[in-house]
Amino acid sequence: MRRTERYPIKGPNSLWQLYNTIGFWRVFLNTLVIVIGRYTPFPSWKNWMYRVFLGMKIGEHTALAFLVLPDILYPERITIGNNSIIGYNATIMTHEYLIDEYRIGEVRIGSNVMIGANATILPGITIGDGAVVAAASLVYRDVPPGSLVGGNPAKVIRERYKDTGHA
């Protein structure tokens, strides 16, 4: 079950009304930092920029690979634990703009988590410690600690070290 806050809107679709929900300059700054961060080759520099300028909570020794795309509108709603890897071109969303509403949700990624290349994490998701998300997966539900999930939509393929939560 995804945990999102729902905000109904009146008039044209919610994305058309984007700057009624969040300030232009906030989005501009977030976009600038994320574009620079996506190409930054040093994980420590990238983590520092994302922590300081975007308010993301990123644990020690966590690595966001080349072209990882954190949410541009609400990156401060992303928390990633220690020693995790987010693979090439993965996307972490904390918002979704629909026709008649928009939704915002926290994304919590535990410690020792590995997320494969091109995976997409939807808003309101928790990925437990020690979990593995296969490449190109669409994570639309919580991922239990220590499990391997994959596919579109992502489903549990195998439970790994269920009692300890370590991969």
Automatic annotation (TrEMBL):
- A GO term, aspect molecular function: transferase activity
Signal peptide span: none
Organism encoding this protein? Ammoniphilus oxalaticus
Q: Please indicate which superkingdom the organism of origin belongs to.
A: Bacteria
Q: Where are the transmembrane segments?
A: 21-42
* Keyword vocabulary terms for this entry: Membrane, Repeat, Transferase, Transmembrane, Transmembrane helix
Cited SUPFAM superfamilies: Trimeric LpxA-like enzymes
Q: Which PROSITE patterns match?
A: HEXAPEP_TRANSFERASES
Listed InterPro entries = Hexapep, Hexapep_transf_CS, Trans_hexapeptide_repeat, Trimer_LpxA-like_sf
What is the designated name of this protein? Acetyltransferase
